[in-house]
Amino acid sequence: MGKKYTYYPGCSSESSGSHLDVSLRAVAPKLGIELEDLNDWNCCGASVAHVEAGALPASALSARNLANARAQGNQDVLTACAACYLKTHHTNEKIRDKPGFKEKINEALGAAGQSYDGDLHVRHACEVIVNDVGLDKIKEQVTNPLEGLKVAGYVGCQTVRPFAGTEGGGDYDTYEDPEFLDDFIRSTGAEAVEFDSKTACCGGAIALMSPDRTLGLIKKILDEAKEKEADCIATPCPLCQQNVEMYQAAVNKEYGTDFQIPVVFYSQLMAVAFGMDVNKDACLDRNFISADVIAQKARK
Amino acid sequence: MAPNSQTILVVGGGIAGISAAIEAAEAGADVVLLERSPTLGGRVAGLNRYFPKLCHPTCGLEINYQRIKKNKNIKLFTMAQVATVEGQAGNYKVTVKTTPRHVNAKCTACGACSEAATSEIPNPFNYGLDTVKAAYLPHEMAFPMRYVIDGSVVGTPEGDAIKSSCKYDAVDLEEKEKTFDLTVGAIIWATGWKPYDAARIEPYSYSESPDIITNVEMERLAAHNGPTKGQIVRPSDGEPARKVALIQCAGSRDTNHLPYCSAICCLGSLKHAAFVRQQYDDSQVDIYYIDIRAHDKLEAFYQKVKADSGIHFIKSKPGSIVVGEDGRPTVCGEDTLGRDIYANAYDIVVLATGMEPCSAREYRVPVEVEMDDYGFIVPKTGNGSGIFSAGVAQGPNDVSTSVQTATAAALRAIQAVRG
Amino acid sequence: MSDRKAGVYLCKGCGIGDAVDMDAIEQVAVSEMKAPLCRQHDALCSDEGLKVIQDDIDGGEINQAIIAACSHRVMTDRFQFNGTQVVRANLREQVIWCHPANDEDTQMLAADQVRMGIAQAAKFDTPQPWTEGDFNRRIMVVGGGVTGLSAAREASLTGHEVLLIERADSLGGWAAKWSRRLPHRPPYRDPQDNDLGALVSEVEGDSKITVMTGALVTRTEGMPGKFTVEITRGGAAVLETVGAIVVATGWRPYDANKLGHLGYGASPDVVTGVELEEMLANGGIRRKSDGQAPKTVAFVQCAGSRDPEHLPYCSSVCCGVSIKQALLLVRSDPDAMAYIVFDELRTPGTAEEFYRQAQEAGVVFIKGKVKSVGADLTVTVDDALLGEEVPMTGLDMVVLATGMVPNSTNPDAEAEADEFQEQLKADINPAVPIPSAGFANGGEGEEPQEGFPWPWKDKTPTGGSILNLQYRQGPHIPMLADGFSDSHYICFPYETRRTGIYTCGPVRRPMGMAESADDAAGAVLKAIQAIGNAAEGAAVHPRAGDLSFPKIGYDICTKCRRCTVECPFGAIDEEEDGKPVVNITRCRRCGTCMGACPVRTIGFDNYNVQMISDMISAVEIPDEFAEKPRILILACENDAYPALDMAGINRHQYSAYVRTIPVRCLGSVSMLWVSTAIERGYDGAMLLGCKSGDDYQCHFVKGSAIAKERMSKVGETLKSMMLEEDRVISEEVSIADSARVADLIDRFAGKIGELDANPFKGF
Amino acid sequence: MTANMAATIPGQSARKYDLGFARWVYENIEGGDKLSMCMQCGVCSGSCPLGTEMDYGPRKLFMMVRAGMKDAVLKANTMYNCTSCYSCVVRCPRGVPVQYILQDLGRAAARMGYQEAKTTDNARFAKAFIWSTRKFGRTDERLFTFKYYLSFGLGEAIKKAMANMSIAIKLVKTKRMHLGMPHRIKGTKDLNAILAKAAEIEKREQGI
Q: Which residue of D has its CA nearest to C394?
């Protein structure tokens, strides 16, 4: 049996990022990760809530989730979404470390009769895979190595920034040139192309509100993936996945390009390489730029 | 209690250690000088020129080496470092560990071993920018003037060939790590610095392009005895580097890296700007900086360099250096005086990496010393202690200040051993 | 030396024996040069080889060893035989490593190297040190501020008596006025207690230190080990004897009255940093106008410093001092606002922590040039970061961070005679443009221009000398164009042109308290060395330990004064009739006097005009039909000669027609040597020495410049001999020029080859 | 921090480098306590993906805070071009949490009623986002997006929705957007109570 974590899926798991959630749940047991869903979890607020709701209410969103998690036990909280991780982890640290903050947050939580004192660890799924699982475990599970598949590992921002290099963040990789995703890709038997844009910004939430401001950022990422002849882009971040996949048509229209590069989650690669069902587990059918190339390359 | 030993041990044979040893010896003290590498000279031996006079460090080293050769008070051990220290002021028992050079004192520096050698190793003197035979003279100004045989050839046919090439029985492939003991009255740590690892400044892509180099590498490129015989060229293709960016505070003044200012890099880069401009009439040099710290008289050097029409100062800490589509390193950031966002491509980009004291990480001082948060050994004054520091072991100092601290440390060590 | 028994030892090691016919060389030594003994060995530097020489010495066979092997720069320690004279002839670096093996010309060169060695040995005497009279070990420290106090204490702790002279009535200097000092110990974040009082007490309680306050040095004569100083106190003068002098006269604040554009004088609430410091030490910051504590204070950096109209240099400490004062202000009153207006913020090294500390405390840093400060305290800043001109209004006080002016002269003393004022016009200008291909040019064809006016180049500091040296070369300690006392400010910071007199602290370059205290310790060590060496008759840096010294043949001396004028170290005085007198312990043994002497009557026991002339003459000159020209090279032994050695190490090949003799300094080159060479039939001569001029690289400061000057007159001599002027040239060669020097030689040899052979051959 | 901070929010100062506003920022803006550490090196602005879209980069904005240029700071579009990539945060050599400060300055500008702040895409987007969060406890991408479009008026909303229709259809087809009832958490009431309380505390502390 694996190690148990309280799992916070986040809002995207129910919509645009559902294939991350499904594929992660599929591969987790094989990696020795036991996921117990967080009770009645709410939205983390992402990078958006703050401007409208205010700093403390934005933190209070995470604090409620943390209080719920604590009520479930003291196992580590795991989330696979970059924004959920950043907000929840940061709130947790502030409650633990920032003078006076715990009192304020608990005053707010008190309105619902809840409290929380900062003693949980909030961890990103990738960090857990690096630190608790290990690459060997991934390799052990590979039955259908993705030989010959060229993957551009696109980490994005918030998965690593600003916490990957901190002690609290598990100190599992660097901010600008992280290696973990390439390691994951290689562990599945695929080839990780040298991808300088690995931590370039896709525009984040601004891409959703004003795509015209951010198409250029997305184009740069696609440009390099194409230049490096990547078969697909793999990412850990739901918003990155969404932006880079969803706006390819708009980029093509704006710049006269013809990008058709599938954008998948690392967990989808793993599910395929682990020999699991390409649609039910790996959710390749949830990519609207066809990611069938992954299944095709997988050695049967 | 009278001190038992009047010998002063100087650890480190860079400019600070050399100066401390000679100054103490010329005042009559007995000195043992230890150097970890095969030759004296330390970091300065690898510099092309000094600021602000643009004169060659080897000139001063030659004088110092002559002083050592003529002074009977100095005993020199190379490839030696301190393993342990016990005791107190006036009576320290020091265990010294030596690593094998595989060449003994019979070496005449004739060079036959090097001719016999076939394999090449990265040249440590040139920071690995080129290679050198596995039997090599560290450089033409090496002191002692004696060859080194790299351990990689021990037990190989090449090693045997090297050994048999020597007519003077100077090759000793059997040589092992050794230790010996010294009794000394005072110790001066002059263990110097190493360049901050530029690869750790990830946005500056040091590992991504051969044309992104560090300031110490620039010294080697510009030096007549460097990998390019003094031609400042792009390491990637050997083409002249006519457009050059110098990036200040690459690591220094940065709480993510070295929180202190390394004090020498601004002047070093001003010097590098002059190197490039001296070599190519149609060159352009851009210096990216936060503050130009040309303190005291060195301000004159800054003003001189500033007066050159081919050198531009951009007050900006670049956000990143990326390798552009044409393969040229491109410096990206904001010009804080104009608020322009720039992306400028260069032939080479030179990172003015800071100084990290060897005592911080590389080398643990095996005796109780007061050390600050960065690993600099806090200088001691007055009586009571027999442990002193000099040069960059003490703080980020330039050559002149290192010599100053070394001379002061020599005096205080003399005070300690003479009670 | 009357009974010379020179043994010649020919080393065949390192391939010498393979490249050169050593038996033929032995023939030259024995048959031609009449060496009483000559031996060959396969490796002279081996234990066996050394034993051969030692046995000859022990057996009384020889008392001079001429070792023809590698360069004298290597195996120096091995070829030492307990006082037996050793002469080295370089067959390796400068013969077989840079010329083809088994070649006629290489063979001739090797033979000449041995001939020169034998000729040198014949004129080589072991120097006897000069140790006449008593040598005093006491150290005089001039200046009782932090630097001088530290120097006195350090000297005392090292066992020396000290005479400490302070012109004020009490010890302490400026630092005694500071409330707190800059942090110099970890964590470098907070102003530290001013512990100067403790140092003053230590000095006052030190029985080895004699303190004289209210005193001035009014006259200094003598030399290291034997200085006589006149000290005047309250009108009365006393004479004291000291062995060495440490000058720690420090600095004074730049006169704020010259800073009218920064509002000084327009409002009483525009004050200097020093004035603010005095307030801090005396109860806190108060406005002079109304006695109120100011709430809003701007600190203007570079008030005078880094300004061509005022002080061209950076005063180094002002940024730190303003940060300290601003911190003290905002800490004493949390509502107070402190602004530091700067151009470049200079907190080098760990002082960066102090900068951060001030920011954390809320001190605001504004980058920009202050254009004016009004009587209403409005500071108008060209705000570089906002990109607009900003009037800062509502200030309660403006503090000008005025710079440091070195007390390299005593501003209160009367200036010396005009002829000596000339000495203050510094001869070295650090702002000279860097000569180069692209440097300081708009492009090709444009003349390099001086970008930054260096105003002190032609001005002289006010006041009289510090020591009133009774030297032929004047009363002052030489200074550089920025007004600071001369110092070789890179490799050897304590070197001055006045042996036994060491400057330290801010008189040498701007520095703070901690660095000054360290600098004092360094200067004291140099003073101790000067005393020790003087007593042993040995030279100090750079020819440390050299026992030789210049001797003047007074029967021939014409009292022409060239030696007294040209000595870079002011070591030679004149008696009233012009007779030169060498103050031997001031001498650095460079030989510039020897080169200067028109009648060649100055020389050293082991280095003299005749010796080099004989070496030149010992070279075999092929006749004019042999088409084998000979070129004499006189090379500076510290730079050019090692460069030639390294040319060999790098196997750079060059003409084998050259015959090279190392010289102590080009300044020591007697023009007789050049004329001897020409008369003997050499076809050309090259002088290879260090860079001269404003960025000179000569370790004897003026040697190469003087040689250049002398060389300019050689052309006339050549013309008078009906020879081409360009047969004799002078080149600047640095130690790093190993590749270039080979090229220079070949080009010159090529030129000489184009000329007819020297008609004096065979005369 | 006092309960009546509201009275101390400084107005726009007539005098450059009046520290009233800066001190308010230091004390009340998230991460503002580190703002004084900025040494104006420009690494933040130079690292910013949308730096070219900004009226002023973060560096200059911070200098303007110090200079007391309250109106210019709070009217700037800088805060709304931050993508939260955190490059500035990890690169800042002085540990200034640039992104946090920008975000909170944007919030402060909106609260203080600056029209420039209230009419940005970001403000409209955030309003819609929070609406969903408050209503359902979670983000319903479909509903809040349309709500966001509606903030531009009905006509504009339909235009925007039509423009994105192909994406929406693809999302639905790939099971990444559902067409049923929004997922609603059980504790929406608790959540809203907590949020209201937090807002109340914040207003008490900062006066806005």
A: D15
